[in-house]
Amino acid sequence: MKICFIVGAGEYSGRFVPESDTYIIAADAGYKSLEANEIKPDLIVGDFDSLGEIPKQKNVITVPAEKNETDMSLAIKHGLEQGCNIFIIDGGTGGRLDHTIANIQLLKEIKKNNAYGILLGKDICITAITNESLSFAAGATGIISVFTIGEAAKGVTLNGLKYPLNNYTMTDNNPIGVSNEFTGKPATVSVKTGTVLITWTETPVTVTFDKNVRITVNVS
What we know:
This protein is of the alpha/beta class. Helix 1 links the parallel strand 2 and strand 3. The protein is built from three helices and 16 strands.
């Protein structure tokens, strides 16, 4: 598995520390956050309306301000072209709510490309799963919420949490999955048909997707 670490112009959490083989992309003003944390990007992409200037680097792709894709969307596309299949996105929440929603929607786009994505915020982590399961290692604490994205999600099962569900059909007009809690035991969220969005509030934590794809979100 190849990890792509993308940093956007939103609030930088520092919850993930990239390793030497991580492919790192700065999306527009995400370059400022990487520079402040002495992290060198492999690629810088954007229209640079947020940054206010084009970085004087060789690895820069400049795009028009008027376009059909966000800078974050373009960064994900470049990561996929590099063969990345795990995407850790920081600086994609906070600030403008519309961009936060757009980045949450991109988690589903990542899944459509058979890849895995986690969106990091200062006080939250977000991911999406489609027709699969996500497991949390023992010891996780805090709040976890589960929502459907788009069509009804069928066969939703929650194990190891304070409020369990079994083979439930989740719809977008009833937020039954909001504000659940970890119990310290191993926990699993699964969906048979459809896509669910999962948010949780504490790190560090290790999550494992059902194809044994394991991601640990650290605190720097």
